[in-house]
Design a protein that fits this description.
By secondary structure, the chain is α/β, with parallel strands linked by helices. It has one domain: 3-Layer(bba) Sandwich (Glucose Oxidase, domain 1), CATH 3.50.30. 13% of the residues lie in helices and 25% in strands. It has four helices and 13 strands. The protein has a nine-stranded mixed β-sheet with strand order 1-13-11-5-7-9-10-4-12, with helices on one face. The chain has a two-stranded antiparallel sheet with strand order 2-3. Strands 6-8 form a two-stranded parallel sheet. Helix 4 links the parallel strand 9 and strand 10. Helix 3 runs parallel beside helix 4. The longest helix has 10 residues. The relative contact order is 0.25.
């Protein structure tokens, strides 16, 4: 079974405070022009997206030049709903293997589209980020606009260790009962620091 974990990119959708607004406009119509076409304007951090290593570091490699292997693989999902600060004791680390992808279901995605989504969200602690590094994971995915707040210590700790970050996931509660899934979140081949993705989990692609 496939699980779509992505928000729809659409005109006027919510964006991180300070980012440019999203426009998705149809500029050609089949009845008039013989074909349909649209013009899209948005930044690389719109909706469900992956933060590249150069987003908050001096890493020199743009997202287009990263190995696609870095954005897919075995993933384990943890239920951390109701926890305001997700620390190391919030999950069972025995379930995490090197090169795994860790997904955190906070349940905060239900507020997507409301002011509280960006203004008041759970965070991940720096100690939790250090444990991710120690366990050798390759990607952290969250149903949050960010796992931390200024000055973004979690971002910087993960990027410094070569760990990618996927933000604004949705629907992770469907994965909680599954021991492991295969996660796919390929970025567009953009000459940029980060990229929107279509995040999908596959339950039958991973043999337990």
């Amino acid at each position: 079974m496939l699980y779509d974990l992505s928000h729809r990119i659409e005109d006027g959708m919510p964006v991180y405070p300070g980012d440019l607004p999203v426009t998705v406009r149809q500029n050609r119509h089949f009845e008039q022009d013989g074909f349909n076409n649209s013009v899209l304007t948005f930044g690389p951090h719109v909706g469900t997206h992956v933060d590249g290593l150069m987003h908050m570091s001096d890493h020199p490699v743009v997202i287009a030049d990263q190995d696609p292997e870095r954005f897919c693989g075995p993933a384990v999902t943890f239920d951390v709903r109701g926890i305001g600060e997700v620390g190391p004791d919030a999950i069972d680390w025995s379930r995490v293997s090197p090169d795994d992808i860790v997904l955190l279901c906070t349940g905060h995605d239900i507020f997507f589209g409301k002011e509280s989504y960006f203004a008041d969200h759970p965070i991940v602690t720096a100690d939790f980020a250090a444990k991710l590094v120690a366990h050798g994971v390759k990607l952290l995915g969250v149903d949050l606009p960010s796992p931390d707040v200024f000055p973004f210590p979690v971002h910087k700790r993960l990027f410094g260790a070569g760990i990618f970050l996927v933000e604004n996931l949705t629907g992770l509660e469907a994965l909680i009962s599954l021991p492991k899934v295969t996660f796919y979140g390929f970025p567009l081949k953009l000459q940029a620091d980060s990229s929107p993705i279509r995040a999908v989990a596959c339950s039958y692609c991973h043999r337990i």
